Amino acid sequence: VTETVNTGGAVRIKTETVYTSDGAYVSSVKDQFGNATTYTNDKQTGAVTYVTSPNGLITVNGYDASKSKLTSVTAGNTKVSYDYGNDNRLDSIVFADKNNSSKYEKFVFGYDNFGRILTTKVGTKELSTNEYTNGILTRSEYGNGDAVSYDYTYAGLTSAVYQHNNAENDK
Q1: Which tens digit of pLDDT belongs to each residue from 126-169?
Q2: What is the pLDDT of residues 93-119, one digit of tens each?
Q3: In sequence order, what are the residues at sequence separation of 6 or more whose Cβ sits closer than 8 angstroms to the Cβ of residue 11?
Q4: Least enclosed by CB within 10 Å: which of 24, 101, 105, 109?
Q5: Are 128 and 121 in contact (CB under 8 A)?
Q6: Distance separating alpha carbons of residues 152 and 16, to the nearest angstrom
Q7: Are the C-beta atoms of 78 and 95 separated by less than 8 Å?
Q8: What is the pTM of this model?
Q9: Cα-atom radius of gyration of the chain, to the nearest Å?
Q10: Do 146 and 164 meet the contact criterion of CB atoms below 8 Å apart?
């Protein structure tokens, strides 16, 4: 049980978390209004297989054979599928209407040899491209022509972020 109490005593928020009988996994969470969300886990891996929201909507999570990678999430009429390449990188995400197979959006990710995301597309439309210098993200350009670029300290910490409208090149 988690409680938040305002030092003035006027606000009190109480939530409750219940664990499985072995204490390994969360089985339900109640919010401050008493609405419970329940979770069902795979007993061997702990992967969350079902989530039931307070309004009764059931979300079903699908995994690969080893239960190490999420491959699908289904809730209501929507199914989201995650496809991985031979290198175990996320290649695409497909948002689909379970009742109409022609209604879907497919996001595709392109990587460089180091596993960094270079492009994100929906269908053939490019949503973003990333540029790297010495392994560090230096610029992201978006499908609407806007861009963001980054400067870093010698320690590799972000020192400045610049926003560019319609892909202006100067900082």
Answers
A1: 999 999 998 999 999 999 999 999 999 999 899 999 999 975 55
A2: 999 988 887 788 999 999 999 999 999
A3: 4, 5
A4: 101
A5: no
A6: 43
A7: yes
A8: 0.76
A9: 22
A10: yes
